[in-house]
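One record is kept unedited as follows:
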Amino acid sequence: MAFSLLAGCTSAAEPTPAGEYSSSEFTAASKCQQCHAIIHYQWEGTMHANAYADPLYQREFHAAGKDTEGLVDEFCSRCHTPIGVLAGEIPPADGSQLSEIAHEGVQCDFCHTVSGSNGTGNAPFIASPGNMKWGPFNDSKSAYHASEYLELHTQSEFCGMCHQVSHPVNGLVIDDTYSTWKESYYGQNGVTCQDCHMSPGITEFKANPGRSASSSVKREHISLHGTVGGNAFVTGMLGAEKQRKLAIERLQKAATLSLDAPLTANKGNNVTIEVAITNSGAGHMLPTGVSEIRQLWLQVEVTDSKGQNIYSTAKVGSSPGMEPGMMYNTVLGDGAGNETLSFWLADRVIADNRIAPRETVIEEHTFTLPENTAYPVTVLATLKYMSAPQGLVDHLFGEGVHEVPVISMVQASGSIYDPDRPVEAQAETPGFTAPMAAVALIALTLLLTLLNPEKKQ
């Protein structure tokens, strides 16, 4: 390669170079499955398992290779098909020389034959394939392979080898997941990546009692190997429904909203509301990863009781005319200072509007209540997320081939009432009086009786 992967590394141990091993020296995930069935089940379908197969990565990878005349082929592949690089099977970038095991992406034997690292960022791992498997326990026993404890497997630095990326030529940081975690409350207080991404807690550590293998001892905690992030787009493309649902669940626990709106307001007057967005559940920036293509925004909609739209912020892909909204992501620029979604062409950060861990940002929105407003007025704020812009996906795959899902992460709502009438009277649910509620309860009881004839009331 024409550049070094080791910039800033100080350890005496050098990362394992490309072509150092044969792919036959690694064990296929299907072999690991024979004893580690549950862990294998969790791993399959994940973005780790599909690190190489990921269709979006493949399109961007080939575009990057074309734009840089192959300069980034090995650089990108070191994290997306580490065995392929270690075995010298890539380049060529088209994957024509890749062995079957190299297609498994970030798989079992690769991670558990990592015996050290030369720091964090740009994949400085030290690989030692063979009978010894490294992991988080100091008393593991296996009839199939030797086991040894490696503290690195319990630390965020293990994840930081690939989840911290600097441009291979100009050093621009293009993925700061690890470094923003390290500088955060979580990093300063010993909450690791594994605590959130490899436990049932999602946004905090929660023990997962169980066994790592069919014949191993039961432990208080076995790390989950789903290692889910927020990618509900590619997992959906690949039919990994389990992982898609987990990604949505993780997104919906990443942030909180609070809405401050006046209780009453007169027709014809300006109304100002505030919405507070807090990164309450992510130990890194929100969003993170290749954040120049991530889309995170607050959608605010104001309607009256007759459904009249009073105010709406811009929706992604909507027609012009709506109020512009803030996009929380990173904006990269190329050598000419133009915005670019191609990080391999970038040499600067034009803007960074992401939300830091435990940070709260406040959006203020002002609108006018029309003279024909029908009270009460509903204000609905929704934090929304897309893994990539629809326009980029259409460019890479063809228009209409894949629809990027819009994920509603969290909502907050409020009501604004007529100041000339008692708020309590306006807040009552229209058309559902106490007598009607009684009738509904009787009807429900009769229905349950019909469905469960043997149960006596």
Summary: Confidence is low (pLDDT under 50) at residues 1-12, 317-321, 431-442, 453-457.
